Amino acid sequence: MIIEKIESIPLKIPLARPFPGSSYAYTEQATIVTRVYGSGGLIGESYNNDDFGCMADVVRIVTQEIAPLLQGRDARNVEACWQAMLPVTKPALRDRRLGLFAMGCVDCAIWDLVGKSLNSPLYRLWGGYRDELPVIAIGGYYEEDKTIADYSREMEEYTALGIGGCKLKVGGLSPAEDAERTRAARAAGGPGFTLAVDANTAWSRAQALEFARATVDCDLRWFEEPCHWQNDRMDMAELRKRIDVPICAGQSELTAAGCRDLMNAGAIDVCNIQVTWCGGPTAWRRVAGMAACYGVEMAHTGDSQFAPHLIASLPHGTCLEVYHPDRDPMFYSAVASTDDFRDGKYRLPDRPGWGLEIDEGLVSKYRMD
User: What is the structure's pLDDT at 22?
Assistant: First the structure.
């Protein structure tokens, strides 16, 4: 199955409303559709979300640097293809993230091609530990004029959609104010509702500890990226000794080695390195193997088109995290609908590869090239 051509298409889809977190705000979904054309007519494809405004650079690296390295190679030799791409991360005067993002685009599409060639969904190809996952929503954004009562209603909306929990945004207010929002979410969701929190590195260790103590009765599934990035390994390791809530991080790491260092530092209970940022599933699964040795669970923020296959393939996977349809129009167009959420669970698609069905009309309407 020889790689004949690689295509990369940047898209920007305006969102119906803004989604502000503690240190950012989303007003559009920027994504890159990547297609790897194999001999015999099969096409592997993916769409990788771009959160850093660097789509043009990533597309250029895919089409001008990676494509010549992979054309003529057998896509089934995934590790060899991954190693062949690695030189794009080496230019010292270029942000190395760009090369990793580009590698992630292509690696995701190659794996889709492999899955299609074997007529197998990827979660099954990687071990098939289960075919159904708990599903929680990423929510609690700091929308303008949103009240405590609104956060309560948001949790009730997720329950009505068949979603079993929420990862609530915190870190945009004081620990005391965010604790109030968290308690309201817990009360609205009820005892069977999974509730995690995500500070997006917004707080100092002292602030994170204050918040954790104020929410001790909220039965939090995990506390994600609680501390400022500058000293996060040490701060999270110290925080972890003082609280009973599991600590989740890894999203801000770019490499397996970075996640290894988090685990060696005793800083995390849950690792959520991003498949689209670290170079693709080939690199992500190395981290998952390490995590099993350290007794660390694996999670994944967003990228709900990829995450269920990664998480469901593992005995130490956690759950699927999804966004509201207004926040992630691509997922609800190409993969799933809210009808797929039932009793807090999501059953994985049985279609081969990632199981994507990308809407060509949407691609034509929003492409940026």
Answer: 79
Closest CA to 45 of 16, 9, 21, 14: 9
Assigned CATH for 124-347: 3.20.20.120
Under the banding of pLDDT at 50, 70 and 90, the label for residue 336 is confident
DSSP helix/strand/coil, 270: strand
When pLDDT is averaged across residues 97-102 and rounded to a whole number, the result is 96
The answer for residues whose C-beta is within 8 angstroms of residue 127's C-beta and 6 or more apart is: 313, 314
Q: What is the residue whose two structure tokens read 């080695």?
A: 257
Burial bucket for residue 260 (CB in 10 Å: 0-12, 13-18, 19+): middle
CATH architecture of 3-119+359-366: 2-Layer Sandwich (3.30)
Contact 261, 273 (CB under 8 A): no
Pairing of strands 345-347, 132-139: antiparallel
Model confidence over 257-271: pLDDT tens digits?
999 999 999 999 999
| Domain spans of the chain, in order of start | 3-119+359-366, 124-347
